[in-house]
Amino acid sequence: MRLPSPAQRLRWPELLRRFSSSSPSSSSAAPILWKPAEPRPTTTLQLLSWGRGSSGQLGGGVEETRYYPTPVASLHLPSDFCLSPVPGRLPDATKGKGTVEVGISCGLFHSSLLVDGQFWIWGKGDGGRLGFGHESYAFVPTLNQNLDGVRSLALGGLHSVALTRDGEIFTWGYGGFGALGHSVYHRELLPRLVIGPWNGKICQIATSGAHTAAISDSGELYTWGRDQGDGRLGLGGGGGPGEGGAFSTPTKVNALPVPVAAVVCGAFFTMALSSEGQVWNWGANSNYELGSGDRRSDWRPKSVPSLQDVRVIQIAGGGYHTLALTDKGKVLSWGHGGHGQLGHGSFESQKVPQMIDALSSEHIVYVACEGSTSAAVTDKGKLYMWGNSQDCQLGVPGLPEKQPSPVEVKFLVDEEEDEHHVLAVAIGASHAMCLVSKNKS
């Protein structure tokens, strides 16, 4: 299918509205994956996906490319639901806990949905990353009954990580470079408990292609997986004893001088937030990933100089770039900009954090990035995306392959429902998903 020309794009909203009323992928066809066992007031949420789905990661049941957000599933949640903990995001002490937590995550070629301790997972099965006990693909959201009581999920390149309500970590999938934390480098087809040296419980997890991080409830940070001399684990300049300089079991990052409350893993670097919102990072820096103004990599955690007086509430790490969301609702970015992923209207890299001016009139409440693609959600529920659009992962048909400025993502509408309020967004290598609440017009 050929993408529309600029002239055709002018008529795209009208065409989408026509298509939505007759397409089998319209909202009415989205299966209901969760609803309360007993009758009670509920809020309807939808999970939508888009981009390239050659491995089934879109959840639509077939290999396909979706040029715009298309429903995958519906959820009927109690009205007091809340989002599950998100890697890189500070806990919000001002918000009460909901009776049901919901969250989404994208790996490179697999996806997940978490609701009330249960999780559905789908996409590429190589290495056992879906946790079903085999390596077969799943083309629709499939309930994983091998682990329950889950509070947070983080999907990596070839593996997956789960945090339970009891503060325990389970991992599964390809174990190369020690990414699973089990002292072994082979695959695990089923979720397996990670035994670490921490006291107490784990309160946040994060992972990337080949390394993983976890924070204990006392603010201690533990990392494991691939280090390869770039220092992304924060454990020393020489790397670990395993293959590729790996550490195959969780090890405390003693070089961090402060307790931390949030962590996120970029491709070759790691970032953490103190409870006060100060950004610390370490690892590879050849593309200015650390925001220090130079290109010197360093395994030792350091705070970002230009953010000393800024309170950051969420950080997100891509392949070679970073997004930071402040408590004022502003977004800063830095690192590699070759695909426009920094959102500054150019393809230049940024040595230090710079505010995204195109979003300055919005109050942003949620950010995400992966590879060379970025996204932001406003307090009004609007979704903006920018960066790599080669696989239609920005959800806006007709864009160039490199989109250097944020564009608003539009949604299919029909006569009864015309407003989508985006709550969360997740990005994979070539696809993306979001959770939305639906409001009647």
Automatic annotation (TrEMBL):
Domain RCC1-like: 46-434
Keyword terms: Repeat
The keyword RNA-binding is annotated on this UniProt entry: no
Keyword Aminoacyl-tRNA synthetase: no
Segments annotated as RCC repeats: 45-117, 117-166, 167-218, 219-276, 277-328, 329-380, 381-438
Pfam families assigned to the protein according to its UniProt record, in alphabetical order: WD40_RLD (PF25390)
PROSITE patterns reported for this sequence: RCC1_2, RCC1_3
Top-rank taxon, per record: Eukaryota
InterPro entries per UniProt: RCC1-like_dom (IPR058923), RCC1/BLIP-II (IPR009091), Reg_chr_condens (IPR000408), Ub_ligase/GEF_domain (IPR051210)
Protein name: RCC1-like domain-containing protein
Organism: Aristolochia fimbriata
Organism lineage string: Eukaryota, Viridiplantae, Streptophyta, Embryophyta, Tracheophyta
